[in-house]
Write a structure and sequence with these properties.
Length: 78
């Protein structure tokens, strides 16, 4: 599904539904060289600005599975 909407190198952060305690949607190739990498959404731990520094060559997205919504992440402007 993600490949239909995202055409460039990206990291997609996944915000799970509260009911999905035993499901893990974060599965990547061991080399972490795929066009789209998946990661857990941990907003208290890392800001979007920090995430962009970790992945400077990739676009960042958030998929909210409760709302069935995909959005591009951008840092807050002061």
């Amino acid at each position: 599904m993600l490949e239909r909407h995202i055409k460039q190198k990206a990291v997609v952060f996944i915000k799970k539904k509260p009911d999905d305690l035993h499901l893990d949607f974060v599965i990547n190739h061991p080399a972490l060289d795929s066009g789209i990498l998946r990661a857990h959404w941990l907003p208290p731990k890392y800001s979007v600005t920090q995430l962009q520094k970790f992945f400077p060559d990739r676009k960042l997205y958030l998929i909210d599975l409760s709302e069935n919504r995909l959005v591009e992440l951008a840092p807050r402007k002061n």
